[in-house]
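[Meeting: bench + compute handoff]

Bench side (C.D.) handed over the final construct sequence. Compute side (W.E.) agreed to return the predicted structure before the next meeting so the bench team could plan truncations. Sequence as handed over:
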Amino acid sequence: MTTSVHGPAEEAAGPQGPPAGPPRSRRALVAGSVGNFIEWYEFGVYGCFATVIAATFFTPAGDGEAEALVRTYASFALAFFFRPVGAALFGRLGDRAGRRPTLILVVLLMTAATTLIGLLPSYAVIGAAAPWLLTLLRIVQGLSAGGEFGGAVSLMTEFAPPGRRGLYGAWQSFTVALGLLGGVGAAAGLATVLSEAQLAAWGWRVPFLLALPMGLGALWLRLRLEESPSFRRGSAVPDDAGAPGGGPDGGRGDGRGAAAGAAADGPAVPGAGRVVRASAGETVRAIVLGAGRLMGWSAAGYTFLVVLPSYLQSVLDASFRQALTASVLANAGFAAAILPAGALSDRVGRRAVMVTGAVVAAVTAFPLLDLVQDPAAPTAAKGLAVCAAGAVVGLMAGPGPAMLAEMFPTGVRYTGLGLAYALSNAVFAGCAGLVITYAIERTGEADIPAYYVAVTCAASALALAGLRGDGHRRALRD
């Protein structure tokens, strides 16, 4: 029987950089990453053009700008709440039919929905149908995005060479950062060459239409992809409910898994190659725990990386170009920290790196916002502050995918980690713009984003403290 991809005690990660490994591993890394790039490129574009989209699709005669922006973020949040549905639907398919065919279907749906948003008629042309059609396309995006993360992370970590699972998983987060940077960069580039009137009339559509050629490239890469070795082993061996180490997140397969592993990542699996069938209760508990561990990443990431542009415009009266510049700097800091954080977690463990990120984000949320709000503060200091905020989020995002993959056995990994991620993002990221904008409008309190980040990151740090310190050295469970 084929042995596990990872030995019980894995080697430490090598120097940070493009991961070395067999050609199959590198192909899996690229094919898994490209879909994430497209998904988050679109979310970056949507966040940057939130005020333009509000005026185009959600502003009938008599409506104010604030109400339209709230409706735009409500549509944004609705798409996130369909992510768990997509994670469950495509996760089930991916755990049964395979990672490869499911990821092909997911990228097709995402590409089609994003392209159609760029072609959608405005409220002025088709009336009340415009916001409904936009919301429908956002739902399709939410479904496909829900299926993307679980499959991509499963693929990357299952193909990862020994001792590099954190770095391989970090590429998922890194392409999220690249996607957000790509979206923000596209918006900033258009804002530079087009007037505000041109942007509002047609320029905002261009970045959405660019998703079509990117999606076709992603489809080509995934059609050439092989199935993961862990899934091939699992599909060739009958389910074994009594396999040692059977439950998610440290489950033992003996009815005591969830209780024994609620604060751990699970023991090494004796007899690699045996398929683990975790109970539904154990899987649900692990999903909820995983969502709690991601809470800070989700909330701080969306507050600093996506919501920031419209916050600066609507609350601090910054120009569109100033807001985009701040967003580019925050995303650049985020991108720069992710791969080093993933590689570091292969050496010192996921817990140390992620708890550090959550605690620093909670402690610095108010000083950061005070600096950004201070009109007398130097522009360079503000730029450095938002860049550092992005880097702190990267400390959580780098090890996060590998941490989740280590919580679930192969038979439920796609579904389990996808649902944990989707639920966390639906509640704490998808609602970030809606909650922050609505709360500021009702209370007049400009520090709402800092409260939101501090509370969620503090709670996330408590959940992350339960990770076992040596989980990064243990084998993924089949």
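W.E. noted at the follow-up: The CA atoms of residues 61 and 124 lie 10 Å apart. C.D. will use this when planning the next construct.
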